[in-house]
């Protein structure tokens, strides 16, 4: 779907097509977001500038080249995608040259750590700040004292199904999926413990997809898989009844959104940002992070109640369609650009 299909033919030539996006082209969340803009919103690829070269020397060369381009470029708006670490320093230097040229820039926050002096300066001098959750917006207001021009624009979900999957067809057994890094803060070890304690009314399996050091499993109904290709993972999701990701916190929570966009209910926690994505009792179930008893009850409740799974499945699919579809995100972006 191109920008003409998303916006309507009368809106082609939108501001997003005339904006320079500066971001890494390596794999990662920022790269996925900008490539989504290229695919869905008509962002010309020549307006996607890479500021990261893989090595320190190459990155310096790219920054120098970008700054020269800015000085001789006629574009009015620059969209800087920011995570943390070296990304902050690179965008700080680039932002300085944009101000020197008396142009405007937007900072798009994709990470969590923005308390350095460089990031505060970069944010304070921006013409707009994009946060991907309300929790992130609250953080920069409360901790950095930055209140001006902050917009909440979520990441798009590119994989929303045409209709939610029919969970009523899954009658003989229940399959639960986990997708995330195999570390404590993602709740994978809590999930394994809760699953082993849960009492299910029909055969139930737990499949763990992720990277990192795989947990050692003794149970036959718990399977550990390595990290699979994204397209393959999305295909496999069609075989599951719900996703369980009892993470301590999420910057955005794309794993929840993708599962819900397929029509899967989810189990998450009340950790930062997650309740914005998963509506407790409506699109999934939330528990306190680290509370094994609550997590056990949630697993039992969702696995043993088909009517509840079907209800949450339909709600989850509709909610993702209403909040994270390309059409909705593009509308928010255009409103933000017009304000700038």
Number of helical segments?
13
Query: Which homologous superfamily in CATH is the superfamily of the largest domain?
Result: Glycogen Phosphorylase B
Report the CATH C-level class of the largest domain.
Answer: Alpha Beta
Return the CATH topology of the largest domain: Rossmann fold
Give the strand tally: 12
Instruction: State which percent range the strand residues make up.
Output: 15-25%
Walk me through this protein's architecture.
With 340 residues, the chain is an alpha/beta fold. Helix 2 links the parallel strand 1 (20-23) and strand 2 (48-50). It is elongated and about 65 Å long. Helix 9 (254-262) packs across helix 12 (306-324). Mean pLDDT is 89; it is low at 1-12. The chain has 13 helices and 12 strands. The strands form 2 sheets. It has a 6-stranded parallel β-sheet, with helices on both faces. Strands 9-8-7-10-11-12 form a 6-stranded parallel β-sheet, sandwiched between helices.
In short:
The protein has 340 residues and is an alpha/beta fold. The chain contains 13 helices and 12 strands.
Topology:
Layout (H helix, E strand, L loop, with lengths): L2 H5 L12 E4 L5 H13 L6 E3 L5 H16 L5 E6 L3 H15 L3 E6 L7 H8 L3 E4 L2 H11 L5 E3 L21 E6 L8 H10 L6 E6 L12 E4 L4 H8 L4 E3 L9 H9 L3 E4 L4 H4 L6 E4 L4 H12 L2 H19 L1 H14 L1
Parallel strand pairs: 1-2, 1-3, 3-4, 4-5, 5-6, 7-8, 7-10, 8-9, 10-11, 11-12
What key attributes describe this structure?
12 strands; 340 residues; alpha/beta; 2 domains; six-stranded parallel beta sheet; Rossmann fold; disordered N terminus; 13 helices; single chain
């Amino acid at each position: 779907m191109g920008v003409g299909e998303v916006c309507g033919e009368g809106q082609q030539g939108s501001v997003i097509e005339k904006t320079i996006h500066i971001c890494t082209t390596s794999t990662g969340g920022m790269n996925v977001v900008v490539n989504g803009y290229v695919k869905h919103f008509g962002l010309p690829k020549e307006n996607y500038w890479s500021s990261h070269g893989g090595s320190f020397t190459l990155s310096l060369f790219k920054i120098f080249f970008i700054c020269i381009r800015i000085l001789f470029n006629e574009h009015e708006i620059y969209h800087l995608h920011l995570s943390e670490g070296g990304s902050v320093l690179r965008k700080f230097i680039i932002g300085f040259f944009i101000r020197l040229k008396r142009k405007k820039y937007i900072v798009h926050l994709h990470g969590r750590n923005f308390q350095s002096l460089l990031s505060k300066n970069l944010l304070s001098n921006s013409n707009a700040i994009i946060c991907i959750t309300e929790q992130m917006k609250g953080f920069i207001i409360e901790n950095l004292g930055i209140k001006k021009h902050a917009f909440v624009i979520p990441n798009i979900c590119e994989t929303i199904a045409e209709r939610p999957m029919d969970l009523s067809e899954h009658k003989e057994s229940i399959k639960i999926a986990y997708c995330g890094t195999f570390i404590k803060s993602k709740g994978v070890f809590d999930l394994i413990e809760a699953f082993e304690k849960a009492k299910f009314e029909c055969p139930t399996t737990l499949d763990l997809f992720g990277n990192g050091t795989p947990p050692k499993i003794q149970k036959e109904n718990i399977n550990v898989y390595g990290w699979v290709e994204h397209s393959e993972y999305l295909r496999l999701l069609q075989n599951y009844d719900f996703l369980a990701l009892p993470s301590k916190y999420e910057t955005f929570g794309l794993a929840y959104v993708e599962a819900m966009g397929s029509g899967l209910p989810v189990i998450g926690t009340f950790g930062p940002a997650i309740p914005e994505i998963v509506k407790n009792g409506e699109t999934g179930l939330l528990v306190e992070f680290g509370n094994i008893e609550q997590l056990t009850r949630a697993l039992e409740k969702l696995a043993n109640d088909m009517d509840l799974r079907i209800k949450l499945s339909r709600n989850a699919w509709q909610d993702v369609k209403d909040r994270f579809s390309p059409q909705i995100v593009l509308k928010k972006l255009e409103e933000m650009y017009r304000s700038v």
